[in-house]
Q: What sequence folds into this?
C-alpha cells in the first residue's frame, strides 16, 4: 500500500510512482498515435462525412462517468470493509492475548501462554497468506511446533485449523481448573469474532465484482475514448490528440483504480498493507506478553485502529 504525505499541488501534478499512470502509459500512447492519424486524414473524413457530432459524446460521457463512479464506489466499499476486518483482527487478538495474561495468574503457565500468543500470531499470518495465495511455511515454522506445522501442510483453510487449536487450548485450561465457565465463555466470544473475520475476508476474496459487468464497462470506456477523435477532429484540429489523451486518462485511470481496489488483499500498490499490518499485530501481542519487538517500517505513518 502506498503510504505517502501529500506534496504541494504543483508537485502532485508530476507524481509518477504513486499513481496508475505508469501502467496506463502504453495505452495512452496508442490512443495518442491513433488520434494523430485521425487528424492527419481529417480532409478525407470531412469529405466523406465520417466525423461524429461531438454533442453525442457529451451526453454519453456523462452517463459513462456515472457508471465509473458507481464502479469505484463498489470497489472502495470492498477495500474499506477489508480494512475494517483487519482493524477488528487487531482488537480481538489483543483482547485474547490480554485475557490469557490477566485471567490466568499461574506462573507455571508462562510457556503455555506464550504458545497461545504464538498461535494467535500464526493465525494472523496464515490468514494473510490464504488471502494472497502465498506460502505461509516460513512464518508458521518460526511460530509453531513442528508437529502442528506438518499437520497444517495438508490443510487448505489453515486459519480455521488454528482457531480450533486456540479453542482446544482454552478447553484444556478449563479442564485444569485454571479458569471458570464464565471466563471460558469470554474467550469463546473473542474466538467467534476471529471466525467472523475469517469469513468476512473470504467473502470479499472469493466474490469479485461480476466479470460481465467489468467487461462491459471496460469495452465501453475504450470504445468511447477511441471514437472521441472523430467527434473533435473537425473543430480542434491538431490539438485533438492532446485533449483526447487527457480525457481518456481520466476515464481509464478511474477504471484501473477500481480494478486495484476490487481485491484489497492483493499485492498491487494500492491494496491493503497486510505485511505491515501482520507485523504490527505480532509486535503488539509480543509487547503485551513482555517481549521485545522489532521496529515496523512506516509504523509512524500507518496505524491500525
A:
Amino acid at each position: 500500500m502506498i503510504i505517502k504525505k501529500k506534496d504541494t499541488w504543483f508537485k502532485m501534478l508530476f507524481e509518477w510512482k504513486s499513481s496508475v499512470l505508469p501502467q496506463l502509459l502504453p495505452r495512452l500512447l496508442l490512443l495518442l498515435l491513433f488520434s494523430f492519424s485521425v487528424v492527419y486524414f481529417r480532409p478525407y473524413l470531412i469529405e466523406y462525412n465520417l466525423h461524429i457530432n461531438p454533442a453525442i459524446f457529451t451526453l454519453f460521457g456523462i452517463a459513462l462517468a456515472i457508471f465509473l463512479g458507481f464502479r469505484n464506489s463498489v470497489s472502495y466499499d470492498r477495500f474499506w470493509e477489508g480494512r475494517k476486518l483487519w482493524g477488528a483482527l487487531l482488537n480481538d487478538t489483543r483482547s485474547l492475548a490480554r485475557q490469557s495474561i490477566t485471567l490466568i495468574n499461574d506462573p507455571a503457565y508462562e510457556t503455555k501462554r506464550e504458545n497461545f500468543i504464538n498461535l494467535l500470531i500464526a493465525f494472523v499470518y496464515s490468514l494473510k497468506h490464504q488471502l494472497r495465495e502465498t506460502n505461509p511455511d516460513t512464518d508458521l515454522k518460526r511460530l509453531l511446533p513442528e508437529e502442528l506445522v506438518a499437520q497444517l501442510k495438508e490443510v487448505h483453510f489453515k486459519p480455521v485449523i488454528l482457531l480450533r487449536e486456540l479453542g482446544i487450548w482454552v478447553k484444556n485450561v478449563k479442564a485444569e481448573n485454571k479458569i471458570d465457565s464464565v471466563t471460558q465463555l469470554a474467550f469463546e466470544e473473542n474466538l467467534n469474532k476471529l471466525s467472523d473475520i475469517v469469513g468476512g475476508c473470504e467473502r470479499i476474496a472469493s466474490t469479485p465484482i461480476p466479470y460481465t459487468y467489468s467487461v462491459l464497462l471496460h469495452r465501453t470506456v475504450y470504445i468511447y475514448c477511441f471514437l472521441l477523435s472523430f467527434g473533435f477532429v473537425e473543430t480542434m484540429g491538431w490539438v485533438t490528440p492532446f485533449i483526447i489523451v487527457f480525457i481518456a486518462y481520466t476515464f481509464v485511470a478511474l477504471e484501473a483504480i477500481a480494478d486495484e481496489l476490487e481485491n484489497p488483499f492483493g499485492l498491487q500498490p494500492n491494496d491493503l498493507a497486510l505485511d505491515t499490518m501482520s507485523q504490527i499485530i505480532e509486535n503488539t501481542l509480543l509487547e503485551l506478553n513482555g517481549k521485545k519487538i522489532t521496529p515496523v517500517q512506516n509504523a509512524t505513518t500507518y496505524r491500525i485502529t
The chain has a mean pLDDT of 87. The CA atoms of residues 2 and 17 lie 9 Å apart. Residues 77-208+275-288 form one domain.
